[in-house]
Amino acid sequence: xxxxxxxxxxxxxxxxxxxxxxxxxxxxxxxxxxxxxxxxxxxxxxxxxxxxxxxxxxxxxxxxxxxxxxxxxxxxxxxxxxxxxxxxxxxxxxxxxxxxxxxxxxxxxxxxxxxxxxxxxxxxxxxxxxxxxxxxxxxxxxxxxxxxxxxxxxxxxxxxxxxxxxxxxxxxxxxxxxxxxxxxxxxxxxxxxxxxxxxxxxxxxxxxxxxxxxxxxxxxxxxxxxxxxxxxxxxxxxxxxxxxxxxxxxxxxxxxxxxxxxxxxxxxxxxxxxxxxxxxxxxxxxxxxxxxxxxxxxxxxxxxxxxxxxxxxxxxxxxxxxxxxxxxxxxxxxxxxxxxxxxxxxxxxxxxxxxxxxxxxxxxxxxxxxxxxxxxxxxxxxxxxxxxxxxxxxxxxxxxxxxxxxxxxxxxxxxxxxxxxxxxxxxxxxxxxxxxxxxxxxxxxxxxxxxxxxxxxxxxxxxxxxxxxxxx
Length: 472
Description:
There is one protein chain. Helix 10 (272-308) runs antiparallel to helix 11 (312-339) and helix 10 (272-308) crosses helix 14. The protein has a two-stranded antiparallel ribbon with strand order 1-2. The longest helix has 37 residues, at 47-83. It folds into 2 domains: 14-234, no CATH class; 270-472, no CATH class. The chain has 472 residues and is mainly alpha-helical. The protein has 17 helices and 2 strands.
């Protein structure tokens, strides 16, 4: 057992959680810089160019979400096999998952590329925005394979507890993207800029570099996973298993993405001030989600490895401590945001008092319930890490389709609350879904799932047969 694994399976839980969560949070912050960099430079082109990027992003995210369940399956299996001490299975899982991701992303990217014009027509994009949006979407779909491969690299490395290498790669590519964006967008010297398409192309270049570096790390085998070319021979039994394990994860992420798109249509029905307030408030919420996601990913790694090592009670304790930290941490952040709400909104829209007032109201309505988000994310990550992808999927479906959207629609369209009803749907959902997820977790049914158990039984039977043969 390596020192790192020893810490994960036997070390102080709080200390290990922090040591894992901090680098993951830093990585997530750096990755969000991709969108911020694009927004910064594209914003200098004009409003129609910004609209072209804005209308393209939800569609590409939805397509990526469809294939992301495979990354969840690979990370879960690699974590459990690492905890069980099965390095051979970790390598096998990594290679087969990378193979599946490459094929799946190529199919999704090609399909998305062909359907891009129909997506934009369905969204009712104006002629002024259409051409730039189509170019941006086409380049984005070409780059989907690299986005998937690097995301898979991150998931597998996180599954075995190695988080520093992905952080270093993301740091380097974010810096490169910051310089490539203005070069490709505006041009330099005799090279004419490509406008909005240049932003997508800059991301394509940096993501392809990140994916190649990730594969190189795997092939060299110095950081916990050692891949060789023969590992990539298709194992259809594993592929089938991982596919059905990952499908609920894809449904979960797709349901969340689609739910937010539909909620955006509801928001748009209340006019410009409501749209702007929702946009700024949502951006701030996404920023708050970064540390919460980092903590939940750390919980997922530790729970997966401890379940693989058959330390179920320790896995439960890790989840409970994670939910406690998530609840307290996001509650404190929520209090700070409540106090400074108008100032935070004014950072994004400094010259519109009406939006500042309404945006601050939105923020204050939901921010004191953010602790519930911390609880949800940590419980869902434990479900995924244990292999109970259906549980995580159900939490997402309940959250988006049984609580938030119906509540937002009824309160905003059928009560005197109007757009306040949308704001209150966030607060109520955070509390209700947190209670629902935590109660489901405490039932303990997730403890009965252990994805490595079949292989462990085979090894145990083989060992007994060898001992028996040796005694004869």
